[in-house]
Amino acid sequence: MYKTPSACCQVSLFWDLRSMLDAEHPMYKLANMIDWNMFEQSFAPLYCKNNGRAAKPFA
After folding, report:
1. pTM of the complete model
2. What phi, psi does 20 have (nearest 5°)?
């Protein structure tokens, strides 16, 4: 479903997302406790290195 644009404008494309988030939020804290590298190493063998779109990092 198409969502109409809001009246609020984006201030800058170059802001760091981490500075915009609340570091005290429980989900923010949880995301920083997860070992994202473990997921990348586990899933790496499932992707082809020679064709297709390059994989994006988890975090």
Report:
1. 0.51
2. -90, -20
